[in-house]
Amino acid sequence: MFPVFFIMLAILGIAGIASALSNSYKQAKDIAIVLSGIVLLLALYSVFLALSVKGFIGSTESMAYISQFGIYLSFSATQFGIILALLASIVSFLASIAVSSKFENSKNLYPLIMLFEFSAIGLFVSANLFIFYVFWDIGVAASYFLISSFGKGENKHAANTFLIYSIFASAVLLFGIMLIYFYTPVHSFDISYITSHSYLIPTALQGTIFILLFIAFMVKMPIFPFHSWMANAYSEAPTQGSMLISGVLSKFGAYGMLLLFSMLTFSYGFAKYAFVLGSVSAFYAAFVVMRHKDLKRIIAYSSMLESGIILVGISSLNAFGTAGAVYLMLAHGLVMALMFAVIGGIEISYGNRNITVLKGIVKDSVGSAYSFLIGTFASTGIPLTAGFIADVLVFIGAINAYGLYGAIPIFSIMLLGFYLYYAINKSFLSTRESSESIARLPRQMAVTYALAILAIFAFGIFPYVIISLFGL
Amino acid sequence: MLTLLIILPLLAASFLVLLTYGREKYTGPLVLAGSLITSLMILYASMSSFGKIQELNWFGISGYTIHITTQLLPLNVILSLLIGLITPLIMFYSMGYMEYKTERPRFFFEMGIFASSMLLFAIAGNFITMFIAWEMLGITSYLLIGFWYKRENAPYAARKSISTIIIGDFAMLAAMLIIWSSYHTFSFASILASPSSLYLSIAMFMVLIACFTKSAQFPFHEWLSDAMEGPTPVSAFLHSSTMVKAGVFLVLVLFPLFMKAGLSELILAIGIISAVLGASNAISSHHVKKILAYSTIEDLGLMFVAIGLHAIVAAVLFFIVQAFYKALLFMSAGSIMRANNEEEDIYKLYGSAKRKLLYIPTVIGVLSIAGIFPLSGFFGKAAIDTAAASNAYAYIILVIIDFATSAYIFRWLFIHSRKPSKSAAVDYSKIPKSMVYAGVIASILVVLAAFAFFDMGSVQSYSDYSLSISISVIDSIIETAAVAFGLVVSYLLFMKAKPTGEIRTKAYYILFNSVAINAAYLYISKAVMYFAEGISVIDELIYGFFASGGEGLLAISDKLRKIVTGDSNNYLIAFVAGIILIILLLLV
User: Fold this and answer.
1) How far is A234 from chain B (nearest CA, A)?
2) Which domain holds residue B553?
3) Residue B150 at interface with chain A, using a CB cutoff of 8 Å
């Protein structure tokens, strides 16, 4: 069969190098847009293959790498992986179109975006833990440089905090992966092999491995109490960086969590603690968000809330919860891309993103104001946006698994809604006073908003396209 | 015919409106045409698909399918026809009302989307379809209340409404998913036919909370009076005749489930409390539209009282008649405000008696809401009174409410029909024609709505509820006496005495208790904010904890690196000391 994942990764590699070698900012951006557009089409094609060709799901593309240790460059099409690869390609495509105010002429941004997309797609379709880890760390490196060289204000500090947390997570992850490798009977990294043979690992050791990997993924999602890197990293990164880190990098952790729960049988005993942790994290984020005035931090904590809900879905360990968690990853990635793009647009138009200072955005930036409103609808799970389908599936799963307790985390989204609507009525939809607009919204940003909104509604109105994948 | 199609013309017209920026004179007629086609289709569907339940697959997962279900059972037909009558009327009224051209497309877009979602709500046959419509009602209401971005209080009022309503939205979401987990279906018909399940009472309690938030019942009722910040057609459409009745409608549709859950006493109690609060605030408010808003809270409370007394058909009757007279009164209020330069304080409104074409429909509306035979309001109220005859407490309170209703609505009428003083700039000729004629049409509907009572038998025969409706003569006499007494009191206090609105007695503050309720809301939100403050302190502590961990490591490295001095003497000493230590260890 046509090796679609190798081709996607090869194109992204070429895109990264080509945009790094290009002469001008515009050239680099054009290369990034065109090539990530092609990758997006390929990602859509892989979804199409999964729907139409029997046997595509579960097929593997493999190439020998360090074969004497059983290490292959192998990619497999899993139903969750290709959905998240689609998400990564959409968000990266949007990030290549978007512009941010300060780095208008820095062409080095685009190689990093391409490198990030390379790592994300590689990670989501990886078939073994070795290359999972490799792509994981490439993603960390790309994000680190996005924050530290293109952010503003306290960006160096934020990037260092991010790096320290990430290195900690990587170290723990590597340790866990090594333990799995040495304690599986044939010393394998292969995810499907580990999934089917994990019962052979002694229970006590499985517990250790599980906790190690759980902590690593918790840091990345992020889940309380390992979230302190998040608010700084999201708020100090450039617009494109925030879109990618919140939209895709946090899904590294969520996807890893999903793999972990399906890989090790230990998860059956541990799931209820994960459920509690996810719920606590969601409520914690919902309350912390109420004391923040910086739009980026508000959205950062709302992202942490959704990560908590994703963990709730994963921990319910049934078809609904898992499908809902994946759908929420998709929906939430798109919403975050939209929200951070809008905040980037507001920053260009007003030079500020503090809701106590911003007033009457709807007067001069109609597009930004209504896009933020739609983003709010989507993050509070209004029907016909993708978030609604995700919420329904996640909470059906949680209620099936945990009874009435499963319904409790729903109300964390309500708390978020209170504050988002407060922000909207304070700064967006009220023109009694209005801040002075310093620049018009660039056309690229308007295109970014429109595409993100289109995707949010498309996945909300036609959920059966994605959901029919889960039945395969 | 596919029932879902009836929404299509209105929905299409609403989206087409967005193309009319720059050609605003087509905006109103476009939506009006769409809503008229929809009305005809409703009429056709209510005959051709009557009693049918239609399912469309939306998506399927692990062996279950989630449907978009529509049903046209008697209640659904009633609400659809109601919407089919009122939507074109309101659109017609709005064509005159919206004088600012640039705002017109946005206004008609939001109104059209609202009307479409209301229609979807009316024909919804399962929880998921109902919830889609329910949420769309919430957000369109939010956008329309905050429509005037320039007004000082409009954004605040919009936020207040959405903050109250989303409590209900998430309660509803939780309830519907809990119900799904027990029954593995969202369909109303299947759930109503199934036996009771484990979590049914808690789920229905949450549904009830959702209905109370949407239908502005105690303790969630205060958003409705603030919602009057929206344009008047919005008040006439959403916040009196359609959207706020979504909660009542859902309770009517799912009534057997509430019975099984044992919640009818709660419905009765909350209904009575809300009706009393609504009436007392209506009698003391000074705001021309807020009086009607509090009156709406009272009306909705009365519907819940009827449901709580298991007088389902009486509730349905009141549900129908209330829509017409309340829409009419809001339209009149909008016209009177327009003639008085958008003044809202009722004591500064004058001269509504001058324009007969406006005044006569208004009086018909007032007589109907007061409950005077043979207008439609009388039948609604007398039916509820008759149903309450077995419950002495409820009956006494209802009679007092009848008296209060008559008192405040005649106060409302008497005050703004005073002769204008010379200084006041009152111009009744500048009211657009469509606003006046819409009121005339509405008043005809108010009169005709009285026939609904005589047609309620047909509802019963189709309905699942074998409950009857009757109006006893004694109860009608008591009701009429209370209304007449209210009229007399109102005449003496507000017509004869020529009040100026400056009186602030203790009784006023007891009656006008919305201030206290708003203060309570404020305390709750402050408490939440203090809690959030505490959590964010913890957040900083966690950050500090990890940061100080990092600093600790740095400090250790600071200490350790001092060992590496670069001085060869130091190294030599360490080397020798180490060798001595090793030798000692070996010897021991």
Assistant:
1) 15
2) 525-587
3) yes
